[in-house]
Amino acid sequence: MADARFFHRAGPFLLSDIAALIGAEPLPPETEAIAFADIATLETAGPDDISVFSDARYMGALATTRAGAIIVSRKLAHHVPEGSRLVYVADPRRAYAQVGRLFYPAAVPTPGIHPSAHVHASACIGPGTQIDPGAVIGRDVDIGERCYIGPNVVIGDGVLIGNDCRIGANCTISHTLLGHRVEIETCVTIGSQGFGFVPGPAGLERMLQLGRVIIEEGVKIGANCAIDRGATDDTIIGAGSVLDNLVHIGHNVRLGRHCVICAQVGIAGSTTVGDGVMMGGQTGVADHLTIGSGAQIAAKSGVMRDVAAKTVVGGFPAMPIKDWHRQTIGIARLSKKVE
Amino acid sequence: MADARFFHRAGPFLLSDIAALIGAEPLPPETEAIAFADIATLETAGPDDISVFSDARYMGALATTRAGAIIVSRKLAHHVPEGSRLVYVADPRRAYAQVGRLFYPAAVPTPGIHPSAHVHASACIGPGTQIDPGAVIGRDVDIGERCYIGPNVVIGDGVLIGNDCRIGANCTISHTLLGHRVEIETCVTIGSQGFGFVPGPAGLERMLQLGRVIIEEGVKIGANCAIDRGATDDTIIGAGSVLDNLVHIGHNVRLGRHCVICAQVGIAGSTTVGDGVMMGGQTGVADHLTIGSGAQIAAKSGVMRDVAAKTVVGGFPAMPIKDWHRQTIGIARLSKKVE
Amino acid sequence: MADARFFHRAGPFLLSDIAALIGAEPLPPETEAIAFADIATLETAGPDDISVFSDARYMGALATTRAGAIIVSRKLAHHVPEGSRLVYVADPRRAYAQVGRLFYPAAVPTPGIHPSAHVHASACIGPGTQIDPGAVIGRDVDIGERCYIGPNVVIGDGVLIGNDCRIGANCTISHTLLGHRVEIETCVTIGSQGFGFVPGPAGLERMLQLGRVIIEEGVKIGANCAIDRGATDDTIIGAGSVLDNLVHIGHNVRLGRHCVICAQVGIAGSTTVGDGVMMGGQTGVADHLTIGSGAQIAAKSGVMRDVAAKTVVGGFPAMPIKDWHRQTIGIARLSKKVE
């Protein structure tokens, strides 16, 4: 079970209620009234815990599990030892995530503004919103309902924040419009000046950065990311996209919807990324490119040209992934021949 | 036009005044008294806006622009449709940046120390300087005139800051001397302990990090960067250099003047970089190297040897850029032959 | 000497005391009572300073040094000009680090909680601990003795911190157990939600992140790092390991003891790293891998497969370092032939 120092568990819950939540197949009636106290992995589960089997790699743990019930798909069910209590669903991983949120519901904000927070008189704070110690909320800021603003967060003048957003401690947000249900981890910068300079007689002169950042609804942003505001157009993070830690997004980047951007990725200025794009960790994408919807970019790639929709690329410079694998093998062979 | 939530526009301004500011060629006298209300891109400009045409790539927008006047060079002027009102300068991009600062002047600090800031009694704060809520200013700190110190910034004991500096929210600066007109975005660390250890009987023991960071005048540092202080010598960022987001600078690095360091670059300890060096995003430079003045390093390079002045390198390991391009092509051909 | 603005020097100290501290060979009796005022490099040392010669690369400085005494090994002593006062030890670099800590002892916390810090009534703060302005200490937090908690640090509910820890300004720590003598630089995130999602009908749904971060004793973490908490298991940083700046550690990563992780490294989720592993800067390690104890990974490597204990790998994809060097040379030759 999760450490009670950090996680507050609800329940217990009846198996019938759990099954209804996740749209499971009908249960044997005699099991419906069994109560479960927690979720747990196959290795650690006991008779009061509900667990999941979603991948044949975990067959070893399955053989010896003491779980009181196992969420499983019809496809994988034949692996399960006889006598186990099974809950059938189409997508066990997703069902397990849902059950997890039942036992460990997201923290609800405690409405109110801490007396040590600095909220400008012109700011508008929605009902149900919690503002923690040391937060600084600027002029004309508008924060929606049921938001959580962590300690020492700094929200610049004019920023608009939707409902049900969570902004972690020590973040700085300026020149930004946030949609509903946006979640931002800690130490994140959003709205900083982009990196645009023009040579002058006394050195580099900064180009004005007069755009904004638009974070659409449901976006999740990892810790210590930096997202620059636009120079002329806006920087946009499309609805439902998720960013891991330490990601850099340059000015005027337009990231589509439901993208998955892994840790330490950098996307340079004015690049447009379609919907549903996946980028592996430490990938770099050059400026002014177009990455088509559904493209997948392998970890640590260096993307120097446009990527067509639904293609898979990898390597540095990035190329179709099959070419990269072939090159990797080819180089190994060739360099042996040379000796 | 820029979003009035975030940007405060000055003006309108007479075309004669704009032309004088940017050193334009003499205007037709009948146009001098025309007033302009804003700057705008060719696509979005209306009759009251002044725009710019600086690159033949934007010819499409030029054909249909409604801009009231266009800043342009003699060289590109023949692309402009007849009947447009033109303002001739030698460097349109730079002129446009200057006009931008006329319409959107940098915010002037509101002098004063917020009552919730913690300023040590021994600190010296210059006239015109603004210190925001929650900032913590240590013992014997000396801050110049007209500086802006953002919310929750932490300035360690003894730090010296010049005039007209801007330090964004949630930055931490220690063991550092800052020149005039230094601009630092948010969540930046400057002056942290360098990464030097020596094996001992109980594990790694830290080498003392007794140097400082010296940031010369006019330097601009992006969000979430980390710059270590020197171990014995100082870490130095030369005058006028600009760093993008999430850059790492190791201890004892000496970066020259007017360098351009793109996002997520890392420069390891004790490397010396000359003046006017450009490094593309995600480049890594190993420790104890010398990078000559005017060198250019392509994005995502891995620099493992010294780089001569004025050379252009790329790849991993970094090599002359022509060699890298040749290798990239050669590998593609060879790996096809092998099959 | 170190800048007195930032570093407070102790001493002077007798050579006999210095020699005893570092386990030096017996000195000529007539030198034992000589007092030294400071440490310094060979280049900058004067007669009152003690210096070190630990590497033949510095022979130039050795020839002209004015240092009052030089710490040196028997092996390198023949390089030293006659007439120099020598202090013989087996490991001069380590001895010099020890002498450095004698002259520049680590700052001792000034016990007490600043009135502007927000410490929850249920938190337990050990004797000798200093809590700086604006720090926010959550419910049921337990902080040991003689700790330093910097300005605007945010410690989430339930976090446990051992004795003699140092947490730099603007850090955010949640869901974490810290051992004794842990040192964390500034703007660091520890305990953020890991990057795990499962597709649902309305887009990506977050997998619950119910694990913790366990930082064992003596760990040192650089500036602006981000360490995610576990999803089901814990994320673990083993005793004595050191992390440089801007490092990303994914959920469920288990890093062994006495590892050296250079700047901008990223280790993806659920990877297990043995003891004494070294990773060069900007290295990326894919998820669910096993890196054996004593392995060394060259800078900027992309590790896509398990690495056996005590092996040295490099390149992208990472391979045995000799293969990578051979490939690098082979490619250069082959691509010339192709032309």
List keywords for this structure.
flat; twelve-stranded mixed sheet; Udp-n-acetylmuramoylalanyl-d-glutamate--2,6- Diaminopimelate Ligase, Chain: A, domain 1; ten-stranded parallel sheet; alpha/beta; UDP N-Acetylglucosamine Acyltransferase, domain 1; homotrimer; 2 domains; about 350 residues
Short description:
Three copies of one chain form a homotrimer. Chain A is built from four helices and 39 strands.
Strand order of the main beta sheet of chain A, please? 7-10-13-16-19-24-27-30-33-36-38-39
Shape category of chain A: flat
CATH homologous superfamily classification of the largest domain in chain A: Hexapeptide repeat proteins
* Oligomerization state: homotrimer
Count the domains of chain A: 2
Strand content of chain A: 25-35%
Structural class of chain A: alpha/beta
Helix coverage percent of residues of chain A? 10-25%
State the total count of DSSP E strands of chain A.
39
Low-confidence stretches of chain A: none
Estimated radius of gyration of chain A: 24 Å
CATH architecture of the largest domain in chain A: 3 Solenoid
Distance between the termini of chain A: 57 Å
CATH class of the largest domain in chain A: Mainly Beta
Name the average pLDDT of chain A: 95
Q: Count of helices of chain A?
A: 4
CATH topology of the largest domain in chain A: UDP N-Acetylglucosamine Acyltransferase, domain 1
Most extensive contact: A-B, 64 and 58 residues
The biggest beta sheet of chain A, please?
12 strands, mixed
